[in-house]
Fold each of these.
Amino acid sequence: MKVKDRTYLAEAPKEGEVTFLSWIHGLRVTKDGLTIKLRDVSGVKEFKAVRGLEKLKLSKESLILIRGFKKGDELTVKEVKVLVRAPPKLPLDPERPEPDKVEDFVKYSYLTIRSPKYVKVFKAQQYVLKYIRDFLYERGFTELLSPLISPCSDPGLRGAKKLRTSFYGRTYELMSSVIMFKQTAVASLEKIFFVARNVREEPKENLSTGRHLCEFTQVDVEWAFADMWDAIKLGEELITYVIERFVDERKDLLKEFDRDLEVPKRPFKIISYDDAVRELAKVGIETPKGKELTFEGEAKLPELYGGPVWITMYPKETRGFYYIEDGERRGYNRDFNLLLPEGQGEVIDGGEREYRYEEIVRRIKGMGEDPATYSWFLELAKVGIPPSSGFGLGVERFTKYILGLKYIWEAAPFPKVPGIVPSP
Ligand code: AMP
Ligand code: MG
């Protein structure tokens, strides 16, 4: 439906004829008459003492076409058409979305997305993606479209389960991460990235971290012939570039979120996993032997070091098979995580890759898995994979950090979260 001479709320004249095509965001009857909040793509505006609407039985979230006369915040309605009438009671009110009530927030994400706060979040997220792409394009990385299914996907999932589907009678896995495709692509393109959607059935208890989704997005970067230190440098340049552009160009958005975002100073602190474990023990946070740091520990470390921290050289057995073992420190990978402050924890995970056929097979067996599961990747490894380094940056986690959101489900338009079904 096309409306001629439509007036967007944000562009309405102080005084004059208007034609609004808007959603009823709020409704209140006061002693002076009706107060109505209208919402369209340009924002929300409140009108007092609206004359001409009193008799219509309007409900919130109805879509109306109003022709009338506007004077300041008073609206005299000449003609009104209800194009979509919403029921009198809604399961979730877009005027007051409550991210603390995660079950409703997720179940009714089809209404949450109408809330002005989340419209701003998704507009901000598009800039996160744009600035990331600007940076990587400028550095000569080629963006590839990511696959969704494959006979095998990333097994290094920290307790999460992979999801499977049937494909011409074969079992295929939904992409838990595109790691193997990254190693495949750098043979020809050398510097690549995907903006890849990943699916993982996270343990139910990960809901309480506020930073685990079951469907999330990684900017997954890979760079042939680079070592882990090159990848770390690239990662922190990427993070600071995006934050810097937000601070310079999106002050208005940051202000709306009451966010005092600082550009972190480079170089970021780098410590080894072993040192991290020792430092955490000093403040009473124990790490189970040979295991990943706890979520609590990951949140604490940036606080201890006063900014973003890289953790390097994780014990081999904590990780997937695709990290290369350090030549000197046996039993440790040449890998890294970036932890951000304010309780954010891990946003980047990466490292230098194992590319030698025999070693990959050994690592897969070491994880107790059948190498046959990874047959196409092993066939490729026999042909040859170039050495490379790379990382994955969680887009929703990074958005959450940039805007200072409380929960990660606020940074996904249609969130799927640990343990909560059904959802859109
Ligand atoms: P991983 O390979 O599991 O370390 O994931 C790589 C990156 O993706 C992490 O550093 C996070 O930024 C992000 N990520 C991983 N798991 C999740 C999840 N369940 N929800 C949201 N982001 C995630
Ligand atoms: Mg990780």
Amino acid sequence: MYQFINGRTEQGTSTHTHDVVNPATGGVVATVDLASAADVDRAVAAARAAFATWARTAPGERSAILHRFASILTERAEEFARVESSQTGKPLRLTRGFDVPGTIDNIEFFAGAARHLEGKATAEYSPDHTSSIRREPIGVVGSIAPWNYPLQMAAWKILPAIAAGNTIVLKPAEITPLTSVMFAQALNDAGLPPGVVNVLVGTGPEVGAALMRHEGVDMVSFTGSTAIGRTVLEAAAVNTKRVHLELGGKAPFVVFEDADVDAAVHGAVAGSLINSGQDCTAATRAIVHRSIYQEFVDKLATRFRDIRLGLQDDEGADLGSLVSVKHREHVAGMVERARGYAKVLTGGEIPSEGVLARGAFYPPTLIIDAALDSEIVKDEVFGPVLVVLPFDDDDEAIRLANDTVYGLAASAWTSNVHRAMRATREINAGCVWVNDHIPIISEMPHGGFKQSGFGKDMSAYSFEEYTQVKHVMFELSGSAEKDWHRTIFQLR
Ligand code: NAD
């Protein structure tokens, strides 16, 4: 039973089930029941009922539950790391060192944020009135998450929402639902009242779409592809829900002529191959000054060829598998098509021998000589694939960096402070790193510009997104005839 509704695990009422597969081995990890649209109604009703009380809980009480939750997750870190790894194919090194600790840090951050409601000072901004600000929760949040970081995505969606006093129904990706359900159960163990967090395991077209359309939902928060994000925006119009969208990316990685080339090469390996490239902020377009282009490409190709793929508990392996054989087909398809118009320097071959042949593995793939308007330069691959493009001057570098419909993240590599300042100002993306690419921290916002969406995850900015600001104004004089009435009617 994988549906978590009103504090209990239940059986989904869809007639279908889904096999959660370890994509590194092809083995079935769990067969999960699926929710139906009727379960969406029940989960939203549970969230609605819980909202009345949860919204009035003192911030300190919410914070205490989240602190207890952080302790529970710290004790169960290895279990969460193993389940996350088994449903995604990620190496245990990554889930132990990044996914789980990052999640715990997020919980601790929002345990603190719950007690810091920001607003303007109460004051007489008009001489006859006292104004004050209330920051209130929005109501029932419907959230949808992708499969690339299932545990962290559950955290990014659930924590700011409940810290601010909302209740939530989360639909994780059906291919990686296990740690999201465990997350909600552990919150329950920490003392969260029933109905505050509900998790439905179901398909996008059935459960996701019903949740986004539901009139009992006050806000939708979606992380996933830009294509589905557009349908979410339309569905939310039904009752003008607040919308928060974290969508795709095609991050530029700009290496200026004065950059430390070795640092940029190391950064490109980590920045493009993190989570096997299934990361919306991953470096996908290395834009490199022509004077250092060949050196950069040669050194990067050597590094890419050295990367070892392997099973999750193989300490010597660098990268795990992709999330599914189906997703690998998408990645391999884009690379195969690129062979027709560009040069595939490394990778590009699906492993066909040994243990790797059983899983959804794909090697680091470096592509050069691609036209600027080609598919591999324009579209999201979401795999371990990096395209390198040369440039001649700074204007061209910035133009190429911004030549995309996306605007989630970018990096600039330079030792010149003026270049760095210009790049951070002129690149249109929600995050610009200088001389690094990828690090995220709980205190700072994550979110896109342009078709990468709007709204921020993590940080106080995300907490604010899950609240609404109310202006309360008290009249002070007590008189029936107020001065401003003269602008409407004659006082006689
Ligand atoms: P996806 O859009 O296919 O699916 C995301 C979620 O939407 C899943 O839970 C899916 O079941 C659900 N869904 C599918 N169809 C739906 C529908 N019609 N109505 C409602 N929900 C529906 O994306 P994905 O393949 O799971 O994830 C990869 C994408 O997510 C990439 O584009 C990536 O860039 C993006 N992503 C963005 C961020 C970010 O923070 N901006 C983070 C991670 C992933």
Amino acid sequence: MALKGAAIMKKLPKTNCKDCGLATCFAFAMKLATGGVKLDDCPHLSVEVKEELDAAMAPPIKLVTIGSGANALAIGEEEVMFRHEKTFFNETGIAILISDKESESDIEEKIRNIKELDFERIGQKLNINLLALSFESGDKAKFEALVKNAYETTDFTLILISENTDALFSSAFLCADRKPLVYPITKENMSSAIPKLKELGVPAGVKGGSIEEIISVTSELKDAGIEEMVLDPGSKDILAGITDQTLIRRSALKKGLRSLGYPTIAFPCFMYQDSFKEALAASALITKYAGIVVLSHTDPWFLFPLLVHRFNIYTDPRRPMTVDEKVYEIGNPDKNSPVLISTNYALDYFIVSAAIEETNMPAYLCIKDTEGLGVMASWTSGKFNGEAIAEFFAKYGMEDKVKHKKLIIPGVAKKLVAELEEELTGWEIILGPLEGSDIPKFLSEEWKK
Ligand code: SF4
């Protein structure tokens, strides 16, 4: 929302008629600026004013959706240059390149590898989003067969890559309902591409030899009624990639340049033959500011760090990741099972619960709501002290769940022992290991003793 309330106010009828449900036009303007009401809530705006305000309030980087259904990928609509200013919203799509020059068995293996990827971090599945299908064989029928195969045998969102416009659009028609990204649309092919893009309703991957060239192509496409575009400045290496991506984002956010106000795509797969360099380029471009990165490898060692990096970049730095407060029953604990406690900072929960699961020993894991703060931070702020934990025990009836009255607390919380001995009468407080990775050994040896 680029427009401020005072600027909106100038465009309103200023009759204070209250038909919008608010007392004054000024109140309406202020609420509109923060997204609290919609333009349509005022029935007295002329079509021209509505269009003007609509355009002025549009996000500086357009939200573009590629694909359809549950696997659709939304990219763009970012509002800041730096993650710590607010957050990044729509995470970079990760695509795997498949060429129609590859053998059938190689293609099959690649697709199988991607389908079988099963990475999880802090309870979140980390996935590949797209297949980037590339026409390199010179045989249109072969490319169409590759597209048809990917369309029919996978649910992945598709990017179609072909310098041959005929092959590009004939294959796009085969999977139009999947809403593929059609790439590249250039100054050379855009006149013939525009009618087909409009007919298909698919997003255009705009490629330019320079930023100026991209501006001229997006401007023409926009004038022709094409709204969804993804930009490729054609960067050849990491440095050029970061420079081009930064220039595009800065121009859109800081200069309000609408013709660059679209998400971007980058091709680490074409920048380097060396897989380490490709991974490095991908990592840099996920950070700054690619909407999609296209990669050539499917090895877990190559993909997992990039998926985790993307996950980290796109979590909200203002809000720690949390899990619900409750007593988690791991396995089928009974009255003799150990009782452990930790905070609701997601990483704490997943480390401790995974460690308990590793022992195959049923246990009660008490997770106290600390608003996502870890053990020591929440102790100092009074959210994980003796009194708060005693209240938790009373709330969840821990007295009745076990007969041994022993509580294992995180090893870093030594200062909690005396507080808990005072607040939890009759309970023995046991200091657990300092590292989560030592919990299995601790439970198997110390607890069993
Ligand atoms: Fe003002 Fe429109 Fe609201 Fe009436 S309906 S008070 S004109 S904003």
Amino acid sequence: MEKLKAEVREKGLKYHIITYGCQMNMHESEKIAGILESIGYMPADSKEDADFILFNTCCVRENAEQKTFGNVGRIKKLKQANKELLVSVCGCMMQQESAAKKLMETFPFVDIVFGTHNLYELPEMILACKSGTGRIYSAPETEELHDDVPQKRAEGPLASVNIMYGCNNFCSYCIVPYVRGRERSRSAEDVISEVSGLVSAGYREVMLLGQNVNSYDGGINFARLLGRICEETDIPRIRFMTSHPKDLSDELIEVVAAYPQICRHIHLPVQSGSSRILQEMNRKYTRETYISLVKKIRRKIPGIAVTTDIIVGFPGETEADFEDTLSLVGELRFDSAFTFVYSPRSGTRAAEMPDQVEEAVQTERIMKLVALQNKITEERNREYEGKTVEVLVEGTSTRNPGHVCGRTSTSKMVNFEGSGALIGSFVNVKITQGKKTTLFGTLAEEET
Ligand code: 5AD
Ligand code: SF4
């Protein structure tokens, strides 16, 4: 390993990571970057400038897979121009043996392929590859946690902390339990000490991550974990995602209500407004229980924003089922929603179901749903006009360099005129305009 480190340093080797998919994948890319920097690699400005290019993949929906194949294919030219270039593909998609095989056959120039469970072994894989072992494919199915790896976090006041991995739910459309394995939780002590370390390092907001974050069980349940983080650390803001409605307990609602540092936002995927489809999806709740859960959350935690995920065109979804989804969206008026066209994933139960919905029908339905939700999102954002909200400033605005942006506790992006010196502080902003994706405002007073 020392020889590899010396070579990396001497040659000044650089890496570039391209990440697809969810927050979990983004966070895993921070770990990959941390591992690479621990053996001397430095970040490259672009893939053209890199000696090691990694694709961290997602397989939750089909279009993510197509994008990955297209982009990996385009690396061939760079590889031809630079024989020393190492190319690696990792992450969820590579955890599926069939997809990994297909990728390796299609792209003989890919050097290292690994899955989601063994990223900590990356230095050994690079070493073996460079010592002439040839191409490497390693995607074991271990359930062990290897969390003690260096992390290179994104700049700014926000940090992610993974508290549990995997999923036991087997929603009938979803590939995640097959690639991420069963639920494993980190110990509460580990999580709390990581959050304390982040506070000391100057971070102001942590996002606790898990595929099913509220079924955390690290000796204590998720509600207790949140309570302990609030009591035992000085972190000013905590978020968490993604919550499953079936595990959203009264105890959790009470803890969120009790601690102002827990953000007033819950991401609670509903997936469908039809109880029949929910049953086919194996979601373990009905339309009615979901609606009363959201109403209870809003009653107990006034002002909380609720966002969701919705799938349209699940096998067997009739016009009446889809109308149920529209009416649920109209009744609950989510702050925003991620909407997806159902995409069959091989190996899942839904992929084998009869009555797959025609593409034209799926397209028509998603357009209707998006139009309805966009209107609601904008209306909800307009409700902020004239109000003063607390914002944690995250960075400068990409569109307007004289402006900065950050989020409210309710997870609304706010853009306002201000200097980069505000990054990392909490400020009050008076909202002048609420648009579809962003609230615009003016600084009301400095540090709150
Ligand atoms: N097709 C479409 N959407 C899916 N999701 C998960 N699996 C599929 C699939 N096969 C969506 C769900 C989930 C989000 C992360 O992705 O809405 O909540
Ligand atoms: Fe997939 Fe369902 Fe698990 Fe979420 S809860 S990761 S949708 S199986």
